[in-house]
Design brief:
Length: about 350
C-alpha cells in the first residue's frame, strides 16, 4: 500500500536514553526517552539552542547518540544504521530542491535513485502532485514557482520514497507571516492524509498547536512537558512552559486571594474585567488594542502588567479604572521559579 492510498505506513518510533555531548563537554541533548506510535505527528517546540534539532538529527542518523542511547523503528534498533538505509524523509527550511529540475523531476528524484521503473515512477509522481495540488505545475522549473509551492514540492519529494519517519526542520520559518499561517493548515492536513509518522521542529507556538497530535516542549536539552496541544496550553507543568506557550499573566501570590504560592499564572481569557469595586483586584487600563472579535487590554495591577480580553464593543478607554476577577479553575500556581523562564 502506498502513501497516496492514505493508509498508515510509517513506523513506530522509540528513542531510548539518547543524548548528545559535543567536544568540550557541551551537552546539546540530555539522555531522552520518547515513543511515537505509527502515524503520529509530534512537534518539538522550544527556543533556539534547546536541543530540538539535535534530537531530530539523532532520529535521522545524521548524528550518533552518546554511548548507551538508541533509536528504534518498529522495535528494530537502527542506531548504527546510516541515514540512507533508515528510510527517513526530510524537509528543511531551505527545501533543498534541485534548481535545474522541474517540479515532477524533483518529486521523482528519490524514486529514480532507488531504481523505480520509469512508468511506476511517473505514475507515483503524478498521484503525489495531485494530492499536494501541483499537478498543473509538473513541468515547471522549481525556480519559477512560489515559496509555498516549493514547500509542497519538498514535502511530496520526501513522501515519495515512502519513509518510515518524516522529519521536518522548521520548514515554514522562511515564509512570510500570512503564507506561513495558511501553509501550516495545509501541512497538517497533508501529513494526516498521508498518515506518516512525523517529527516537526519549530519555535512557533501557533504552528505547533496547529500541526501536532502531541507537543514536546524542550528547554536546556531536555523535554519539559509532553502532551496534546490542549494539555500543554491548559495544564502547563512549570513556569517555563506556562510562559513559553501562549500569552500568560503572572502575579505574586500575595495579590491573589486564597493563594499561598509565590507565583500565580493565568491566561487573558481567565480574567473578568468589571467596574471599579466589582472585583477583588484594582487595575488601570494602560493600552487597548482592537483585534476584531475582541479587544486586548493591558492593565496595571499594583505595578504588575496583566493582559485581558474583552468584547470589542465594550467602551473601555486608556486611563480607565477597572477591577479584575480571576477564574480560580484556570489559575496555575507555582513556587517562585529559580532562574530565567523566558528562554534557553
Amino acid at each position: 500500500m502506498t502513501a497516496t492510498q492514505g493508509v498508515a505506513h510509517g513506523a513506530s518510533l522509540s528513542v531510548r536514553r539518547a543524548g548528545k555531548t559535543f567536544p568540550g563537554g557541551v551537552v546539546a541533548l540530555q539522555p531522552t526517552d520518547l515513543d511515537l506510535p505509527a502515524g503520529e505527528i509530534l512537534v518539538l517546540l522550544g527556543p533556539s539552542g534547546c536541543g530540538k534539532t539535535t534530537l531530530l538529527r539523532l532520529v535521522a542518523g545524521l548524528a550518533a547518540p552518546d554511548p548507551g542511547g538508541a533509536v528504534l523503528f518498529d522495535g528494530v534498533d537502527v542506531t548504527g544504521t546510516p541515514i540512507e538505509r533508515r528510510r527517513v524523509g526530510m524537509v528543511f527550511q531551505s527545501y533543498a530542491l534541485f534548481p535545474n529540475m522541474t517540479v515532477a523531476e524533483n518529486v521523482g528524484y528519490g524514486l529514480k535513485v532507488r531504481g523505480e521503473p520509469r512508468a511506476a515512477r511517473e505514475a507515483e509522481v503524478g498521484r503525489l502532485l495531485a494530492m499536494v495540488g501541483l499537478a498543473d505545475l509538473a513541468d515547471r522549473p522549481v525556480d519559477r514557482i512560489s515559496g509555498g509551492q516549493r514547500q509542497r514540492v519538498a514535502l511530496a519529494r520526501a513522501i515519495a520514497i515512502r519513509p518510515k519517519v518524516l522529519l521536518l526542520d522548521e520548514p515554514l520559518s522562511a515564509l512570510d507571516a500570512a503564507l506561513r499561517e495558511r501553509l501550516r493548515i495545509e501541512l497538517a492536513g497533508l501529513l494526516r492524509r498521508f498518515a506518516i509518522t512525523a517529527i516537526h521542529v519549530t519555535h512557533d507556538q501557533a504552528e505547533a498547536m496547529a500541526i501536532g497530535d502531541r507537543i514536546a516542549v524542550m528547554r536546556d536539552g531536555r523535554i519539559i512537558q509532553l502532551g496534546t496541544p490542549e494539555d500543554i496550553y491548559a495544564r502547563p507543568v512549570d513556569p517555563f512552559v506556562a510562559s513559553f506557550v501562549g500569552t500568560m499573566n503572572r502575579l505574586p501570590g500575595r495579590l491573589v486571594a486564597g493563594s499561598t504560592a509565590d507565583e500565580v499564572f493565568f491566561r487573558p481569557e481567565a480574567v473578568t474585567v468589571g467596574p471599579p469595586g466589582a472585583g477583588p483586584l484594582a487595575a488601570r487600563v494602560v493600552a487597548a488594542i482592537f483585534f476584531g472579535a475582541h479587544r486586548r487590554l493591558t492593565l496595571d495591577v499594583d505595578g504588575h502588567v496583566v493582559e485581558a480580553d474583552i468584547a470589542s464593543d465594550r467602551p473601555v478607554r486608556v486611563g480607565d479604572a477597572v477591577s479584575l476577577a480571576l477564574d480560580a479553575a484556570r489559575l496555575h500556581v507555582f513556587s517562585e521559579p529559580s532562574g530565567r523562564i523566558d528562554g534557553c
